[in-house]
Specification:
With about 500 residues, the chain is of the alpha/beta class. The chain has 17 helices and 16 strands. Helix 2 runs parallel beside helix 3 and helix 7 packs parallel to helix 8. The chain starts with 5 loop residues before the first strand and ends with a helix. The chain binds 3-methyl-2-oxobutanoic acid and zinc ion.
């Protein structure tokens, strides 16, 4: 198979199974486009048979994202497989990904199936998939807890039916690195025909070993790694794409393999996905965390000043971490903004540029220097924009430790401006209640988080909220994520709330 490892990104499928993540179609498309720019070889766009939302996402991404392979997951069921094939029908490079559990535990307790029945089911599933799609991948779920001899028979059966990729999973993140490495090596010996197919791995991070287990598999011949941006995924997540990629790049001497990811786009991709999923990145996260390239101790700082190699095994610029410099200021124009955005990996249409420029000017009026980090926050927040049914005009607050917090909020809606006041447990709560009065909807705040985008007193504060808005006519309530960024955190909080309500009502 050579030295090239395919990066199979499953942020939109396994990553979307992260508790609390619920992406709409526009967000999924934006993520898929970014993954294409990043250079992902395969994008698992969803599980078409699981819901209409997933079906539509696979269909739309297939239509619009033309360079990578677009993949849909499917159980070994005719209905799932046919639905996946239908969703993928417009793709330039479609792949059908069929899976069946292989461990005794899953077969007995979940599928109520014998091993012989599982062999037949997997073979039939792949046969049907192959009749609908050239490129078929088979995953044995819970492979790391399966009997290797049975696993080998299962993989042989699907290879005989035309699967061109076989995926070895550590579904529950149970395997040690030694065990997983042994399993991969054993399967290379036990499976007849394995040389004709690509071997893939899919590891979960329950014990913090997802990346280690994936990389050790590459060392022993795996040539596809399934991973997610920022390590999103079911429970403790999947192997983090950025760590896999930088592991391969930094220790090419050891793993003996390379991938096609444009590492300079890792940082922006990570931020964009964090923004859209509402999942914050811990500061100590390898490669893309805020501390990943910071040196705190005097000894380290001194060493780095002499020679960066003393304490740095990768360069921040190679993963696209923005420098702390301020490329733009109050007087910068649209061209400068477009150029800086392009340098950071954002391709702006004319309409995008108009919105971004308006926001940039508002920010530059309040903040002397607009740094690269500010720009990334501003530009990635833009993808959370929704048509503004409600637009915040202004607000006033009375708050203090001896006052009942009171907020007056003025909002533009359908050609008129509405003002309402409310009291609350705190100033933000009061403002949110005033917004609810204006929209005449009951919105429940599910989560609220705030972070400073940059350091200093004029730092841009970015607020992320998740709300559930009651719908009219007995329809189910709608959930949405909202973002707001401003140098004033109360303003950022109200903007985030109004943004979430707009998105919920429009979705
Ligand atoms: O974790 C797992 O086993 C999976 C498969 C469906 C590939 O996500
Ligand atoms: Zn998984």
């Amino acid at each position: 198979m050579g030295d090239r490892v395919l990066i199979f990104d499953t942020t939109l499928r396994d990553g979307e199974q992260t508790p609390g993540v619920n992406l709409n179609l526009t967000e999924k498309l934006e993520i898929a486009r970014q993954l294409e720019r990043l250079g992902a070889d395969v994008i698992e766009a969803g599980f078409a048979g699981a819901s209409l939302g997933d079906f539509e996402a696979v269909e739309a991404i297939s239509r619009e994202v033309r360079t990578p392979v677009i993949c849909s997951l499917a159980r070994c069921l005719a209905s799932d497989i046919e639905r996946a094939a239908q969703a993928l029908s417009g793709a330039a490079h479609p792949r059908l990904h069929v899976f069946l559990a292989s461990s005794a535990l899953h077969l007995e307790k979940k599928l109520h199936m014998t091993q012989t029945e599982a062999l037949d089911k997997a073979a039939a599933g792949v046969r049907l998939a192959r009749s609908l799609c050239e490129d078929v991948q088979f995953s044995a779920e819970d492979a790391s807890r399966s009997d290797p001899a049975f696993l080998a028979r299962l993989y042989e059966a699907v290879i005989a039916e035309g699967a061109s990729t076989i995926n070895i999973t550590d579904t529950v993140g149970y395997a040690t690195a030694n065990e997983f490495s042994r399993l991969v090596q054993d399967l290379f010996k036990l499976v007849n025909g394995i040389g004709r197919v690509r071997v893939s791995v899919h590891c979960h991070n329950d014990l913090g070993l997802a990346v280690a287990n994936s990389l050790v598999a590459v060392r022993h011949g795996a040539r596809q790694v399934e991973c997610t941006m920022n390590g999103l995924g079911e429970r403790a997540g999947n192997a983090a794409l950025e760590e896999i990629v930088m592991g391969l790049n930094t220790r090419r001497d050891y793993y003996g393999a390379e991938c096609g990811i444009n590492t300079k786009r890792l940082y922006v991709s990570s931020r964009l996905i964090s923004t859209l999923t509402g999942q914050e990145i811990p500061p100590n996260k390898p490669v893309i965390g805020a501390n990943a390239f910071m040196h705190q101790s005097g000894i380290h700082q001194h060493g780095v000043a002499q020679d960066r190699a003393t304490y740095e095994i990768m360069r921040a610029e190679d993963v696209g971490v923005p420098a702390g410099n301020a490329p733009l200021g109050k007087l910068s124009g649209r061209h400068a903004l477009r150029d800086q955005a392009a340098r950071l990996g954002f391709t702006l249409t004319d309409a995008d540029l108009n919105t971004a420029f308006k926001r940039f000017k508002e920010l530059a009026d309040r903040k002397k220097d607009v740094t690269e980090r500010d720009l990334i926050a501003l530009l990635s927040g833009q993808w959370v924009d929704a048509p503004e049914l409600y637009h915040l005009e202004s607000y006033q607050l009375f708050a203090g430790n001896t006052l009942t917090p009171t907020a007056t909020v003025k909002i533009k809606h359908g050609g008129s401006t509405v003002t309402e006041a409310a009291v609350g447990d705190g100033p933000i709560d009061a403002a949110y209640r005033a917004v609810d009065r204006i929209t005449a909807r009951e919105a429940r705040l599910e989560s609220y988080s705030i972070r400073a985008v940059t350091e200093g007193q004029d730092a841009l504060g970015e607020v992320t909220v998740r709300v559930t808005v009651a719908d009219e006519d007995g329809k189910p309530p709608r959930r949405a994520l909202g973002k707001g960024a401003a140098t004033d955190i109360i303003e950022a909080s109200i903007l985030a709330y109004v943004n979430a309500v707009n998105r919920a009502l429009i979705s």
